[in-house]
Amino acid sequence: MAACPEVAGGLGSPRERSEICLGGGPEVLKNRARVLSNSGKDNTIPYVRGAEKVAGIVKLLGIKKAILKSDSPSCGTGRIHDGTFSGRFRLSDGVFAAILRRDGVRLYDEKAENYE
Question: Beta partners for 44?
Answer without folding.
Answer: none
